[in-house]
Design a protein that fits this description.
InterPro entries: ICL/PEPM, Pyrv/PenolPyrv_kinase-like_dom, Pyrv_kinase-like_dom_sf. This is 2-methylisocitrate lyase-like PEP mutase family enzyme. Pfam families: PEP_mutase. GO terms for molecular function: lyase activity. Keywords: Lyase. By secondary structure, the protein is α/β, with parallel strands linked by helices. It has a single domain, classed as Alpha-Beta Barrel (TIM Barrel), CATH 3.20.20.60. It has 10 helices and 8 strands. The chain has an 8-stranded parallel β-sheet. Helix 2 runs parallel beside helix 4, helix 5 runs parallel beside helix 6 and helix 6 runs parallel beside helix 7. The longest helix has 18 residues. It is globular and about 60 Å long. The model has no long low-confidence stretch (mean pLDDT 96).
Length: 262
């Protein structure tokens, strides 16, 4: 694969209900390379929270748009696999700004994006539904103009922000109508909610996988199309590093992972 358009086409084809795309989120060049080399991995996704923390800033567009695109390009350039970039709210105040910024991100090589519908603090409050849909449409317009079939994973923050089910579903379907390919539906913590979302949303569903959530095999069985883990992969990495540091400081045994060849 040599073009961003081809990578985007592949990325979309990997979103199969019942055989979900599993993306272990990365945040820099080395994590991109390590995950890319794992047998069976077919695409990568960044996590804005992890990227922000790696740069010493808070999540929620703590990076400037220039910094966010540069960080995305570091990941994209480290792998031959398609990369979906967590682009937060588009780093813009309006739909026109979203289109301009997404165009730049596509030019950097992004095959897909996440775009969220919360206004300020993560998950609440949300943009009015018409404005949020217009921002999704702007991302699709950027893709159309560049000739890259960007995979848009439109995030619905309603439930995670304490909102109502009907609003979440209405948003999901509005974003699909505006050009989203997949709905990143936060707050689906039970089999019942996943099943309900799949029956009421007129398109593919993407979810977060969590230790206390629905098991991966069950998510596949129910018909989810994509599972990611957000900043939890950073948490997993830091937990291992912290435990190893404690063991070494206490003059304990060398953790076998110190011999990991990268």
């Amino acid at each position: 694969m040599t073009t961003t358009a081809e990578k985007a086409e592949l990325l979309l084809s990997l979103h199969v209900p019942g055989t979900p795309l599993i993306v272990s989120n990365v945040w820099d060049a080395v994590t991109a390379r390590i995950v890319s080399d794992v047998p069976g991995v077919k695409a990568l996704a960044s996590a804005s929270h992890s990227v922000s923390f790696a740069h010493g800033v808070e999540d929620g567009e703590g990076l400037s748009v220039d910094q966010a695109i540069a960080a995305a390009k570091v990941i994209i350039d480290a792998t031959d696999l398609p990369v979906s970039v967590d682009f937060e709210k588009g780093y813009a105040k309006d739909a026109a700004g979203v289109e301009a910024n997404v165009t730049r991100l596509i030019e950097a090589g992004a095959a897909g994006i996440n775009i969220e519908d919360s206004v300020g603090a993560p998950k609440a409050p949300t943009f009015p539904i018409e404005e949020a849909a217009a921002r999704v449409a702007a991302a699709r317009a950027a893709a159309d103009k560049t000739g890259v079939p960007l995979v848009i994973n439109a995030r619905v923050d309603t439930l995670a922000g304490g909102g109502e089910w009907d609003d979440a579903v209405a948003r999901a379907n509005a974003y699909l109508d505006a050009g989203a390919d997949v709905i990143f539906f936060l707050g689906l913590g039970t089999e019942e909610l996943v099943t309900k979302a799949l029956s009421e949303v007129h398109g593919k569903i993407s979810v977060i996988g969590k230790p206390d959530g629905v098991p991966l095999a069950k998510l596949a069985e129910l018909g989810v199309s994509r599972v990611s883990f957000g900043p939890q992969t950073l948490g997993l990495t830091l937990a291992h590093l912290s435990a190893a540091a404690a063991q070494l400081t206490a003059l304990g045994e060398y953790p076998k992972e110190l011999g990991f060849d990268f």
